[in-house]
Structures are given as structure tokens and as C-alpha cells.
Amino acid sequence: MDYPLIVGGYKALRQAAIQATDELVQRPIVLIGGCTGNGKTQLVCSRPDGIDLEGLAHHRGSSFGRTLQDQHPQATFENHLAVSLLKKAEQQTRWVLEDEGHMIGANHLPESLRLRMAQSPLAVVEDPFDVRLERLREEYFDRMYRDFIAAYGEEKGWQAYGEYLHHGLFAIRRRLGLQRFCSAH
Hints:
The chain has about 180 residues and is of the alpha/beta class. It has helices at about 10-25, 40-45, 55, 75-90, 110-120, 130-150, 155-170, 175, 180-185; strands at about 30-35, 50, 95-100, 105, 105-110, 120-125.
């Protein structure tokens, strides 16, 4: 079996990952944007040239974006990004990415990627409001509830799910306003 070997330990591996990312993000990038609930992540994941940044970050990039998996440390996130790019590099000449801010949860995008994304064209996905609302209900509430129960059992799962909802509401409290936040809380 033939595989690349990086000599020099973890520091050499980190430098190789950073260098690979810096080089590979110079390829053309198409950003997928739109409102929350438009299915951007599913679209990116369905494409052979798609890189799921939110999946790599273990966060959906929104106030209710936490998942049951803890986010990786920054260096691990960057290493996973490099591996994802390298795995697809031979077959792909461009990348399709979801339009993200500089942070996905606690992880930030590498500067080389952010700079390329700022120069890249944006394709906007639009779905009717009722389709978005149904997708949001399933992804952020129904599926998360099932995942918490499966991971922790009925009682602890319900408690953890409640904490997830509270955390999400707390993150949007300014947008809700104090009165609406208190009534939802």
C-alpha cells in the first residue's frame, strides 16, 4: 500500500495540514447561501465537491446549532478540514461550501479560507417558508430530542434537551426581546 508519510511528528503534521489547506482553498469556490432552514447543508453534502464545514465543526452554525458531539479543539478542526480537502483533491477542481461567518460555534475558519470565501460567488437557495419551518422543526427540535433520548435515556435525555433549548433561546435573547425571552423561558 502506498501512502504519504510526513516525517517530524505532530508539529510537522500540523504544518503540512496548514500548507495543504492554504494551497487547496486557492481552487475556485462556490458558496451556498440563504436563510436558515433552506437545506444548504444537505445540498453541500450531496455534491462530490462539497465540503461540510458545519459537520467538521460539529456545529450547525446557528443559535441552536449545538450537536451532541463536542466541538473539537481548533487545531483538530483545521486538521479535519485539511484531510477532507485532501481526500477530494484528486477528483475535484473546485469546492462547494456553505456560506459561513468566520466562526462555526467555537471554531473559526482558517484565514486563507475566509479570504477566498470573501472573493467567491454566492448561489442563494430559497425555499417557501412552510418548507423551511418544517425542516427546522425536524432538524433542530424533533431529531435533537430523539438524539438526546437515545444518548442519555428518557429522563436525562429530556433534561439535556431542555438545556439545549435554553442555551439556544439564551443565544437569541436580544433578538427576542426581554419580554418574549422571559415568556419562552
